[in-house]
Design goal:
Blueprint (H helix, E strand, L loop, with lengths): L1 H4 L9 H9 L1 E6 L4 E3 L7 E7 L1 E7 L5 E8 L3 E2 L14 E4 L3 E7 H9 L2 H27 L2 H12 L8 E4 L4 H7 L4 H13 L3 E4 L2 E4 L2 H6 L1
Antiparallel strand pairs: 1-8, 2-7, 3-6, 3-8, 4-5, 4-7, 9-11, 10-11
Helix pairs in contact: 6-7
Length: 219
């Protein structure tokens, strides 16, 4: 549970508050492909991902799937639902690989916030950052072409201190990445092939070598 203390949502809690959080939390494990919760299921918990990767997605009536977000280790998700009485999860959550999470009771944590203005302000700041990021993402999805979206995704994955050539490991299926970027899987593959031909990257199954960071940024 120590990873909770390092997260912005829990870092300002005092000893008694944090003890209450840990008492109302539970570690859970998911196998690859296992569903954590479903769209329109009652939202009683939010989560922090310790290890693995979680796909948040929506399904249409005809079975089409749209990936809304990919959750990586250290991230929380579904916490916004605690501010909606009788709320339901607006998305499905599924493990892309074997994953380990901490499940936190929403009602208990919301009660803590009512008695902790300092923590409430921190969470408001965190939510504002998330909202700003989502607005930027909407801009990218609506104003940029497919190639630009793929390049920006690659650049976001590169560590700040990376020196070329550097390698990225992709455990996420390409079909999922394509859905996340609102491109067809064949378009996603074609763009990767184009970038390879331009000597900017080199793709090898589940890894991608970044050969020219500056060249990618020039786009």
């Amino acid at each position: 549970m120590e990873i909770l203390r390092q997260n912005i949502l829990f870092s300002s809690l005092d000893g008694d508050q944090f003890a209450r959080v840990t008492a109302g939390s539970k570690s859970i494990k998911l196998k690859e492909g296992e569903v954590l919760f479903q769209q329109q299921q009652a939202a009683d918990y939010f989560y922090l991902l310790e290890q693995g990767e979680i796909k948040l997605y929506r399904s249409s009536a005809d079975g089409a799937e749209k990936v809304i977000e990919l959750i990586r280790a250290g991230q929380t998700f579904a916490e916004a639902m605690m501010f909606m009485d009788g709320g339901f999860y607006p998305v499905n959550a599924q493990a892309l690989i074997d994953s380990q999470l901490i499940r936190v009771e929403m009602a208990m944590f919301r009660d803590l916030l009512e008695h902790s203005p300092k923590t409430s302000l921190k969470i408001l700041g965190y939510m504002s950052q998330r909202l700003h990021g989502l607005v930027q993402e909407i801009d990218q999805l609506t104003l940029q072409n497919a190639k630009m979206r793929v390049i920006q995704f690659i650049l976001r994955e590169i560590p700040v201190d990376a020196i070329e050539p550097c390698q990225l490991e992709w455990n996420t299926p390409k079909t999922v990445l394509a859905s996340r970027l609102s491109v067809r899987p064949e378009t996603f593959s074609r763009i990767l092939q184009q970038l390879t031909q331009e000597n900017l990257i080199k793709v090898d199954r589940k890894s991608i070598d970044i050969l020219d960071i500056g060249g990618l940024k020039d786009y």
